């Protein structure tokens, strides 16, 4: 006989696994990677150290860190056949579609599932994707502007090289901006993992069939794309632009967000777990002020964002539902200040989340978790005989 099956839409009250990677406390607004607070990591670590910490469980020693970076650099060449695929995309192709397709193409080059019993095999797959994914991101950006695809410079830091691969111009001297490097490094750290969110759960369940790491990541990229999830950072900027075009009428958008007949939601607000301020939003809001001030950028969109936040924090509907700004509310403002186009924001989210997806996939496989296969409660037609076509 069937055991008791409980339906839990969106798995709001369902735990899918035990994990030692990331700890969230939604009531207190706490986020820790392997026990270290996000506030300390964002201030004191760099993105590659945090990637190592998430994946292997400890902050790397200097020697481990150097080896990790060198092994990643050794993998930062992408097969030229993949580059030809980039050229096949129209410039108007959505960057998330391009980067998901290119990651799937890499899967064709790495079809087999990793032998998880071999730490060496697993390590090789990990440094391979960490080396190649930033190239795919940079190529996606350059395709959009018809720029030659650049391989960057392995003498640079990991994040420095990403910015160079994206923004260097042919026959022009590229001047690295420490402000942008530090801002992107911090943003990527803040996005690096977030326990069992939608896209991470997608990576884990895809990997539970023993699909390869690259195939599981490509599935995660597609799940992240949705505007209710990682796609929210793009949707926030589009919303703020619409408000700006509407004479900054934030009250109209607040009313729309509360109107049950209107599907519009205030993008960048609310969270399944955080019922208090998203700790990442606090850090990003402060960083947005600093980056724009350092870049000497006056962005009216930032003022509209702050006005909207103030209104929402004082609005009873939002207070009753514990709707606070989340990680996506301010991140787009920094990306925009860095010259990254709106439809590339979720690609930058994927770049940050990559180490978290890898860490979670590795943990699921090392824990030998069974294939994810939930049950259902059937509510369809009862048994009935076939009706021939001429009798229908
Ligand atoms: C990310 O899970 C993660 O950790 C994700 C993430 C990560 O790092 O991986 O943190 C990244 O995805 C952040 C969230 C980005 N998404 C958005 O900003 C889109 C707007 N936010 C909402 O769609 C919503 O808040 C979610 C999707 C984030 C959470 O949805 P839930 O937990 O399913 O909550 P719900 O839809 O059941 O809403 C509860 C109530 C409802 O009202 P009532 O039916 O109770 O009257 O709150 C309302 C909702 O209508 N509500 C909103 C709202 N969010 C929820 N109303 C207006 N605007 C909003 N943004």
From TrEMBL:
Pathway membership, UniProt: Carbohydrate metabolism; tricarboxylic acid cycle; isocitrate from oxaloacetate: step 1/2
Keywords: Acyltransferase, Transferase, Tricarboxylic acid cycle
GO molecular function, one term: citrate synthase activity
UniProt catalytic activity: oxaloacetate + acetyl-CoA + H2O = citrate + CoA + H(+)
Keyword Acyltransferase (UniProt): yes
Domain of life: Bacteria
UniProt keyword Transferase present: yes
Pfam families from the UniProt entry: Citrate_synt
Family according to the record: Belongs to the citrate synthase family.
Protein name per Swiss-Prot or TrEMBL: Citrate synthase
